[in-house]
Amino acid sequence: MGDQPELTLEELLHDPIILKLMERDGYSADDIRMLARHAVAGTQGWESVSSSASARRKSRLFRPMPSACATLPLCP
Question: Could you tell me which residues come within 8 angstroms of residue 40 by beta carbon, excluding any fewer than 6 positions away?
């Protein structure tokens, strides 16, 4: 495990699982980049990232999950 280099932020931001989690939570790659810039600079930036993500979450339409029977062939 020590032979593998650490992934860069850009590599992480292209990982399908990371992208799906960010989408679910309402964050964009730009939000994460801005947060990283603030962290490197030692400034506070989470409030602006969090509020923009919160606004995006609120603006999304509710998408109901499919019922279990819709995905199982043996349901009556």
Answer: none
> Mind listing the pLDDT tens digit for each residue in 17-38?
999 999 998 899 999 998 888 8
Residue type, 2: G
Tokens for 48? 């602006």
Rounded Cα distance between 75 and 67, Å, is 11
pTM of the complete model beyond 0.70: no
Q: How far apart are CA 65 and CA 27, in angstroms?
A: 21
Concatenating the DSSP letter of every residue in 22-43 gives HHHHT--HHHHHHHHHHHHHT-
